[in-house]
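testing teh design pipeline on a random one, pls ignore if ur not involved
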């Protein structure tokens, strides 16, 4: 899956985090079944979806403290998603290894995007 129809980067973070979670779900469908992959995939689905869900919550925050907490959770979940992605692609002989690495890089990029927002918002 690409970031959008024209392969241009998405700058709207709500959309970008949605696309990340969606693409993770498409990627997971291609991972071979094993007990370990099943458990790792469940963790990845949860963390990847939580990135965007918490970012949306941050945008609707009732206070600065709530905003910062939600952003920190988004950053943490992006970092966790990168962990599960790497674990899955490092322990399998995947046909779509490049997609796994692309998603890993996107998780790292999202974490890097959230960090300065958090720093500037303190």
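output:
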């Amino acid at each position: 899956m690409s970031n959008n129809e024209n392969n241009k980067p998405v700058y709207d973070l709500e959309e970008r985090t949605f696309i990340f979670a969606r693409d993770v779900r498409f990627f997971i469908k291609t991972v071979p079944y094993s007990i370990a992959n099943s458990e790792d995939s469940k963790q990845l689905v949860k963390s990847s979806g939580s990135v965007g869900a918490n970012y949306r919550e941050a945008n609707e925050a009732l206070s600065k403290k709530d905003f910062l907490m939600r952003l920190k959770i988004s950053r943490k979940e992006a970092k966790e998603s990168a962990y599960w992605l790497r674990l899955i692609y490092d322990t399998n002989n995947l046909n779509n290894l490049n997609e796994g690495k692309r998603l890993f890089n996107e998780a790292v990029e999202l974490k890097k995007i959230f960090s300065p927002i958090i720093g500037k918002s303190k």
